[in-house]
Design a protein that fits this description.
The complex is a heterodimer. By secondary structure, chain A is an all-alpha fold. Chain A contains eleven helices and no strands. Helices cover 76% and strands 0% of the residues of chain A. Classes of the chains: A mainly alpha, B alpha/beta. Chains A and B meet through helix 8 and helix 9 of A and loops of B.
Chain lengths: 271, 201
């Protein structure tokens, strides 16, 4: 088996797993909140793979539901963020020195404030909850991708083959679509996928700290912060499995992003 | 058509010396002009100015008396660069690189020894010499009237050099394309040129 086939398998497996979690969670909204006091505080076993909590709720279903919520929030936030990065990056590189100075200044400003602090401020200012988290994550994560895209466009504009294409009589639109887009799309896609783990982690951390989603929603941050209270009483499974699943999700997004980069980069595309 | 360079002066930055000062040249479409000078005397700079990639500080480049910069569409003065790997987009397949040129015929592709198998590859999967053939083919579009060859054969072995120059000379003679060749090899220029120009510092 060659490198390319292996990478395709990694990518597909990661995407299938994440999609299964995201979609599976949509269907177990009730199950995640169903309480059963005859089944409370059970150790992980066959009928409850991740055990049950102090209200007899199945931790496996709750974890899937929580991750699903996190992935969907991550999707929304990362998409908004990536598009902001694309537009601002291209604007910065093409609209002249003044616009570039302003956008670079904003990038530096956002980057200069610690992510989590800015995220908390935005989320609280927007009244917490879903909108607060999505807007908060979206507004704080676009900067590094915007920088990458700005740099890429600037470098492309100066490159020999673009200048040759101009002399061969091709218009600006043709050059943008034919020559620049194939360079920007991979950057954008990979940047977008690699934004997910950040978005998910930040979403769960501010929810964990109590500034994100409300406590009725079984978000992964809520599950973890609630489990903390029961950890001292020896109920280790309440935090361990949701925590592991969160880490696994984040790693899989990273695997998906990296494999996609390898697949579309001509340097490694045919390996 | 006649390509004229009139009193061209150029410097890269204000502090630098003038790399070209008051340079003039007139080339007709029947000529093969050789350009010789040691490194750093402005051969490539001159080519870039003649092909319109760079604006001279003073003086102008004219095509039949009209400024070259005013021409819309494919530029009749095409330049083949010294480094083919920088002249093709690494993310385009070679087939599309050829399509960038202005109606490149099969005879040109055959004449340069480009194999069908190369067409589906990316630039990273071809050698410098193979890439250079694509760059030459791309510059030989229908509207090309003058060709600037900036050390195009430095990375090729002698047999390939001779093959490519034979093709290029025949093609430019047949289609009445004026050729300006830059090379460090005076033997090569003696062989192919109708006239030689030496750049002075």
């Amino acid at each position: 088996m060659n490198q390319r086939k292996k990478t395709i398998i990694y990518f597909t497996a990661a995407v299938i797993f994440l999609a299964a979690v995201a979609i599976g969670g949509l269907f177990c909204k009730e199950a995640a909140q169903a309480t059963d006091f005859s089944q409370k505080n059970l150790l992980p076993g066959l009928s409850h793979p991740f055990g049950t909590d102090w209200l007899g709720r199945d931790m496996f279903v709750r974890t899937i539901r929580g991750l699903s919520l996190s992935i969907l929030i991550g999707l929304a936030a990362a998409t908004v963020s990536a598009f902001a990065a694309l537009i601002l990056g291209i604007a910065s590189a093409t609209l002249g020195k003044g616009v570039d100075a302003v956008i670079t200044w904003i990038i530096d400003l956002v980057m200069g404030i610690p992510h989590i602090l800015l995220l908390l401020l935005i989320s609280v200012a927007l009244g917490k909850g879903l909108t607060g988290v999505v807007v908060g994550v979206a507004l704080t994560h676009w900067t590094s991708l915007a920088r990458v895209i700005r740099g890429e466009v600037m470098q492309l504009r100066e490159s020999q083959y673009i200048k040759i294409a101009e002399k061969l009589g091709h218009g600006k639109l043709h050059i943008a679509v034919k020559h620049m887009l194939p360079h920007l799309v991979p950057q954008f896609l990979v940047g977008l996928i690699l934004l997910f783990p950040h978005a998910i982690l930040h979403e769960s951390s501010i929810t964990f700290l109590g500034f994100g989603l409300s406590s009725e929603q079984p978000a992964i941050g809520i599950i973890l912060s609630e489990s903390m209270k029961y950890l001292v009483t020896g109920k280790w499974w309440l935090a361990l499995f949701p925590g592991l699943m969160l880490v696994l999700t984040v790693i899989l997004f990273d695997v998906a992003g990296e494999s996609l980069r390898k697949l579309i980069d001509p340097g490694s595309a045919h390996k | 058509m006649i390509l004229t360079a009139k009193d061209i002066s150029f410097r890269y930055s204000k502090k630098d010396r003038e790399i070209l000062s008051g340079f003039s040249l007139e080339v007709s479409q029947e000529e093969v002009v050789g350009l010789v000078a040691p490194s750093g005397f402005g051969k490539t700079t001159l080519c870039k100015i003649l092909a319109g990639y760079q604006k001279p500080d003073r003086g102008e480049v004219l095509l039949d008396g009209k400024p070259l910069s005013g021409i819309k569409g494919p530029c009749p003065v095409q330049m083949i660069w010294q480094h083919p790997e920088q002249s093709v987009n690494p993310r385009l397949r070679m087939r599309e690189v050829i399509l960038e040129g202005d109606n490149i015929g099969q005879d040109i592709i055959k004449g340069l020894g480009i194999e069908e198998d190369w067409m589906n590859r990316y630039p990273a999967e071809l050698s410098g010499g193979e890439l250079q053939r694509f760059c030459i083919a791309r510059a030989l579009g229908k509207s090309t009237g003058f060709l600037l060859a900036d050390e195009i054969s430095t990375m090729l072995d002698l047999i390939t050099q001779s093959q490519i120059w034979h093709f290029l000379l025949e093609e430019t003679r047949r289609r009445h394309i004026g050729l300006i060749a830059v090379s460090h090899s005076s033997a090569l220029l003696d062989e192919i040129c109708t006239r030689k120009i030496e750049l002075q510092r």
